[in-house]
Amino acid sequence: MLDPPAKLFSSADHETHFNPSKYLEKYYSLVRPDEFEKETIPFQLKTFYHLFHEILKQKLSAESRLLEIGAGPSINLCLFAAGVFREIYLSDYLLGNRNELMKWLNYEPDAFDWKPYINYIREKNIPIDDNILEQVHEKVKDVLECDVRTEQVLAQPIGQMDAVACMACLEAACETYSDYQDASKRVINLVKPTGYYIQSGYLNQSYYDAGAYYFRTLSTTRQQVVDTLDINGIDVQGWFDFEVPYCGATRTTTSPGTLFYICYGVKREE
Ligand SMILES: C[S@@+](CC[C@H](N)C(=O)[O-])C[C@H]1O[C@@H](n2cnc3c(N)ncnc32)[C@H](O)[C@@H]1O
Questions:
Q1: Residues 232-262: pLDDT tens digits?
Q2: Could you give the number of structural domains in the chain?
Q3: Using a 6 Å CB cutoff, which residues line ligand 1?
Q4: Measured between alpha carbons, how far is 142 from 126 in angstroms, rounded to an integer?
């Protein structure tokens, strides 16, 4: 069993210790994939393709708008959502992450280069348009400030959306299950009745590697996640999960039995 890292930062420490460049390098540069990246990332990418292009595209109108809460410095989800939604709004709690996204959207020379990641998606035989980066530039309409611990979540409210996604964010932002339930409720409030909610995260995980530092995460079970979605008005329609390989080379998993999941559901009418 791997010892936990000597220093674990709390969710509040994201503000001082989350490094957007190191995070992008760790999860999206794929220069030297470790065991985690070799299997978990292809699972994630294949599931995103299936969910957005083979499921949601058939269910949503071409006019639909997507909001992503806690996107970090990453356009990963947009690479699959751009072909489905008319407009995408990204948000994150940290100014550093929002600045990193703006740098990319503004074509600044030191912005993160997503081309190797796109080549990697192609190598895994996952369909992706040749002009996907231009599509993402066109579809992302704004990068907003958010905090799932506040009532409105978004610093500048934009109303309810056809779909909201919240990927690997709630466990990082919440320290107790009660906080998690409350944050989930606020995020789901941003989905229109009969709209779609998409969520991913890690089950049975108590910290994550953000590239530069390790942050504590709230360890949840599948039952807790499903119960929270149900209490907050979501009928889960699809659940995809994958046991993250446990190996000494990576400190991404706390212990054997960590599952990465992606799920989606429909918001019930009030
Ligand atoms: C593990 S990262 C996930 C980033 C991105 N969704 C991805 O999948 O790569 C966790 C994210 O949660 C964000 N976060 C932390 N506290 C938050 C809060 N109170 N409200 C909203 N987001 C928060 C962090 O800034 C960070 O971008």
A1: 999 999 999 998 876 544 445 556 678 899 9
A2: 1
A3: 11, 14, 18, 27, 70-72, 74, 76, 92-94, 97, 146-149, 167-169, 172-173, 208
A4: 27
